[in-house]
Amino acid sequence: MPYVVTDLCTGCRYTECVSVCPVECFHIDDAMTYIDPQHCIDCGGCVPVCPVGAIKAAHKLPPDKVEWIEINRRRAAETPVVASRLPPLPGADERKKAIVLR
Amino acid sequence: MIPEAFPLQRAAGRYRVAIVGGGPSGFYAAEALLRSGQSVDVDMFERLPVPYGLVRFGVAPDHPKLKQVTRVFDRIAEMPGFRFFGGVEIGKMPSIGALRPCYHAVILATGAPVSRLMDVPGEGLPGSYQAGDFVAWYNGHPDFRHCKFDLGTERVVIIGHGNVALDVARMLAKTPDELCHTDIAAHALDALAASRVRDIYLVGRRGPDQTRFAAKELQEFEELADCDLLVDLDDFQGLTSGPGADTEAEAALTMLRAFSTRPIAKRRRCVFLFGLSPLGIEGDGHVQRILLSQRQLNAQAISSRNIAIDCGLLFSSIGRRAAPISGIPYDEARGVYANIAGRLAADGGALPGLYACGWGKRGPQGTIGTNRACSAETVANVLADLPQLGEPPRHPDSLLGGKSIPRYVDYPAWGRIDAEEVARGRPKGKPREKFIAVDEMFAATSEASHVEP
Question: Which has the closest alpha carbon to B14: B3, B27, B22, B25?
């Protein structure tokens, strides 16, 4: 059971997860990151470092987020690996505040 | 001396960096150096003939998926410019001082191998051990293969509420069927199969809201085949997490609360106790009980009383620190090499050409991948400093042969050890049967491979 990036990442894309991933299993597009389930080794290191809590264990996803398992699998196959941390997307900090207060 | 005097001096104009230690932080430092786009050659020195450090000797045998990270280390080892020298202990022969003239920079990636002591009377009585020794033993570390733990006792106490304590408890709690298809050392599987342990007490100084347990590791206790969970939350019913609470500790508390309501029906019990500080260990020639001070939280006041838990085996798991090295500045308070963002520093000034990464730099914390960011930070400073560091007067190959480095295991030779271990494990349904003696490891590098044709 790998870990999964959910839609909370969309528009923030802090990429703290990337800097602590031991196996470089994060992929990226213009909106967010995705975890390649083939390469994730379930270390869980990315979960606590995500500023918006976007990453969850696949088996712990609430029903309305389960679709993200398949989205991660598909998008990881279609997008490039990101090997090191990038600046967050514009507006990420404002979005984070909104998410944390929600 | 002028470089021309050394015909071995290959690749003029390339930087040479030595990494001492072949665990995760060392590999990630090598990766950052070799990917930097600069002309850098990396020599990694590992005390044991085999690489991977705590991924091989720390990660528990029942966590096979985590060990897949070794594939990443193998890819790093294939990068041009990388050499591995296994079975070479820096500090004995050769020393850091002998490495320095051969390299522009030396990075210590030697981890935190020294267990912190409880510092109470009776510590070290037969039956009282460091958790780290037990971990190294069940993982087949050559230095610990002769250890004997008194598994004929019924009650074991583990002091400390971190993930190493959980590993020790889980290994004691599991049945032979739950362990026999892992890469656990054969001697440990035999000893644990004969274990008479029934009660495993996990004792922590602080409350259930302040453990260092990873929720993910706690969760595995729910799946134990023959071990119940008891969590004593009597003194901690009213706990609520305040603002800014550590999310991981909060998740652990939620898990512990769930444990406290589970039914009791199995042969073994794992008991989580909180608010207890060790006062002393008693026993006539062998551990018989541990004395603890119990913190009591009443409405306003905090008081304490002393209690004793009878036990025949005791593990302390309260942290680790880097091993002091002569001539290397040491931060006693933190138990790490004194450093500023990875640059070793003494009296406020950096020591040119000397660096640290991993647990020896930041202390024993984080997951495997935390070392990636940690080593990348150190390497960024190495790369910034390299142009100012003098050309090393000697060539590293001058260390090879003779008495400095009489023999070593390179990466292809490790590949032969690896193949042999995997072949040895196959008939037992184990992912590998590790060699547990250094001489066995060296011998396996020269034998014809027994892997199928």
Answer: B3
